Amino acid sequence: MGAGHDHGAKSLGDAHRTRLLAAFVITTGFMVLEVAGGVLTGSLALISDAAHMFTDALGIGMALAAIFAIRRADGARHRTFGLYRLEVLAALANAALLFGVAIWVLVEAVRRFGDPPEVLTGPLMIVAVAGLIANIASFLLLRDGAKESINVRGAYLEVLGDMLGSIGVIGAALIIQLTGWWYADPIMAVAIGVFILPRTWRLGRDALRILLQSAPAGMDVEAVRGSLHGVPGVEDVHDLHVWTLTSGMDVASVHLSINAGADLGDVLNEARQALHDGYGIHHATLQVEPAGSARDCETLSW
Q1: What pLDDT is recorded for position 93?
Q2: Where do the CATH 3.30.70.1350 domains begin and end in the chain?
């Protein structure tokens, strides 16, 4: 089944690409502002929120990269699978970096509990409010595209979560300003760090799963085998492999032994339809063989 990768990013129009780029510029700009503001004000919560905003920028950047990778791959004959794995490699690098940042934030927060430093609440409030405005702007820019693309939807959810982080930093600044309770800043930093770590773990796990070419999470390979075996004319199903090329693009390869009287075209169409409708597999390589030929196929450990 060679035609029609139903990849979400591929369906985005020029307007959505422009919105993605605008959201990327806004998010990246305010991420740098939050890092500078965190260093200037001494706020660990603001630096932690900047790390969270980094995930937003990378998520949007990966959505953009997927769009442009598809276009570039069209003219590269040696890239037979395109450049989709760049998105996965970027996600793995993102997970490793974020894990390190989150651990540093947690360790630094514990150290500050013993001797909380003074935090400049005025500048902290200004930067935090600016960050919240940036998140709202990115949220509005991505809202429509999230309905069309799984990549944009991921970035959209990242921005939504970061809005909560910005609100938390504003809350910590208010508490410090009104009560002088300096512990609010490291406590909020810990909360944001704890919020980032599970998502970072899931991101790294999913990236490694794709790079190791494991079956997609939640997909029952034996059920796929059973569905193919149920196609009229199929006698045996072997050498079945299902893996993920990149987020939202599952692919498969399989050998089908068919009965002597079965129509080749009908078997192929039915098998492709079973994979498409039952498991969302839009690209499959199907090798059809005469009945009894399975023993002639070389048996591999994978």
Answers
A1: 77
A2: 221-296
